[in-house]
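For reproducibility, we list the full input for the HDE complex.
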Amino acid sequence: MQKALGRATEAVTSAMESNKKAADMKSEMKEPTSKDPYTSDFGVKGITHDTWLSASTGDRTGPALLEDGFGREKIMRFDHERIPERVVHARGTGAFGTFKLYESASDVTSAGVLTDTSRTTPVFVRFSTVLGSRGSADTVRDVRGFAVKFYTEEGNWDIVGNDIPVFFIQDAFKFPDVIHSGKPEPDREVPQAQSAHNNFWDFQFLHTEATHMFMWAMSDRGIPRSYRMMQGFGVNTFTLTKNDGGERHFVKFHFTPTLGVHSLVWDEALKLAGQDPDFHRKDLYTAIDMGVYPTWKFGIQVIPESKQDDFDFDILDATKVWPEELIPVRYIGEMQLNKNVDEYFTQTEQSAFCTAHVVPGIGFSDDPLLQGRNFSYFDTQLSRLGVNWQELPVNRPVCPVINNNRDGALRHTITKGAINYWPNRKSAIPPSSAEQGGYLDHPEKVVARKQRLHSAKFSEHFSQAQLFWNSMSEVEKSHIINALGFELDHCDDPLVYERMVTRLCDISLELAQAVAEKAGAPTPEKTGKPNHGKTAKGLSQFDFTPEAMGLPATIASRMIAIIIGDGFNFAEYEAVKGALSAAGAFVFTVGPKRQPVKSSTGQSVAPDHHFEGMRSTMFDSLYIPSGEHVKVLMKQGRVIHWVREAFGHCKAIGATGEGVSLVKMACELPGMLFSQGESGEVVDCYGVVTAAGVGRPTGVTEALKMVKGAK
Ligand code: HDE
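The corresponding predicted structure, in tokenized form, follows.
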């Protein structure tokens, strides 16, 4: 793919030249050239890459000699090249970028990163799936991790978030249980990277506080089209503080993509998991490499401490959103990713996040999930990377780090001097006051009894699950029904799927009945907890299309395939390709082979891919120019499948002239109409071209209705 697009990296890297983190990483980079000789790890030039020293007799290899230090070093080092994968979020990919503040939040915080609009703060972001192993597929149904490391002038600040604003549990104590239930079942170690199994749904039923979150995971949010097209949420409740002692505020963090929130359809996601397990990884890499930098608006929701009890939910409960009608999101900054990593292992795999990393002006709340996370992340880095994990290039701050640390496995910094303790006779490394920029802990008053308990509001588990369901559009609702239908179909214990259907009655009887049919459970007749009927904005994805957000809709970075064969119309091919590329789309030519294909007027075009090498799932849209090629293509099952599949996935399909006949033949359904003007204008297959323009239905059923209306 990359080759076809032509890389824009050179131009792009200049964007990072003035970036402090980029400069910091550069100091450790080396790029061997063909002139650099090969050496052993201890620096001695080697004379071979290939042959072990052996006791050879004459011209034949003999027994290998243990003595070969070069050979032993090479193999033994290789034996230890793997580090433990993350216990959750093992599969991920990352990129560097920048954060710019456009509105100061100095009314609520003293944090430089959130008050100084003249700064550009370097960031590193790692996106991930939760359940799968490091080699699992990108497009599985799962929650996505959205971890951001801000390299601020006052130290590192990590928001270790997800693409879903709530979580399965309210208290960190339960984390091993929810993760064990989702990971492969321990007896046979199946399934990989799937929640579709007995254990997961058994836990979800028995653990009612997970109800809200599983609805999000079963919605289209669980299968994003791209990491670049999903929201990020800090999930937990943090606090913002001011050095002048002003009122403390509770805060939730939001990242909203300017490209809009978009998802795959389930059939696409399933197929892509096999056809291109790196789909999201490549998508991010390609967009950045081509200079189409993914950008997110950064927002905060704040609640003054004095108002913390004003809501019918507990604001420290991570299974609840703060509805935007009550607490609007205030967008104050923008994050852009503009530099790919140079090396996956050192930069992405060794990146390590920690919720306890906050900078002056930002603090924690008593959210019991966050409190446990603050312990867990540091702890996990110790076993994954060792005690000196914060010295690794991707993890170290851009401001000075001066402390009494020495020693530990793989210590990197060489600290001179005899002092490694405080107090010391030289007054070396004194602590800082708040005025000098020292971290000031908020003097929270705590009068407490030692006990295991949450506030009464924590025990309400269904209200926001109903709010979420009620706020979905019809098409989103049908996707949730299908997702639950799929998941429960993979549970073979009737106790699991039958009980889950009864749980759905606590959200909506309509939902429960529709899922019961698919799952094979008795159809419920009575609602569980009555649905309150309320809705809220900011829950449906349709609230985050570029149009809904007042941002320009764009096809930039969308993948478009032009289908050709011998005899295609070159003028049309060139014109459409040129127009799409000019609008920023990534355009690929797909033909019967990668060897050149001839147009009707004699020009040769070498396709980027052939029909068997790629599939329609890897593209957002197709275009078929007119020409003699169509006659042949119409006889090829794979080509018909390409078009039919794209149509089934509700993708825009363009065609001109004879190309329209191919689309019609592949996609014609009873009652479906295709517009074809006299001059053979573009047909929008999931839309309808009428005198009024192109309609945009949300699925085939609606398209059929529109077609009937258009007649
Ligand atoms: Fe994590 N989580 N988590 N988590 N989490 C980890 O830390 C943990 C939770 C999230 O790209 C681990 O470095 C506990 C919520 C992301 O490197 C581990 C609890 C949210 C990542 C850990 C939670 C997250 C992790 C494993 C319950 C969304 C990947 C490897 C209290 C706000 C970060 C690691 C990356 C990773 C613990 C719950 C997001 C074990 C105990 C809620 C994005 O420390």
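The first strand starts at residue 92 and ends at 101. The pocket of HDE is lined by residues 86-89, 92, 126, 128, 145, 147, 160-162, 167, 172, 175, 235-236, 318, 351-353, 369, 372-373, 376-377, 380 (CB under 6 Å). Both points were considered when choosing residues for closer inspection.
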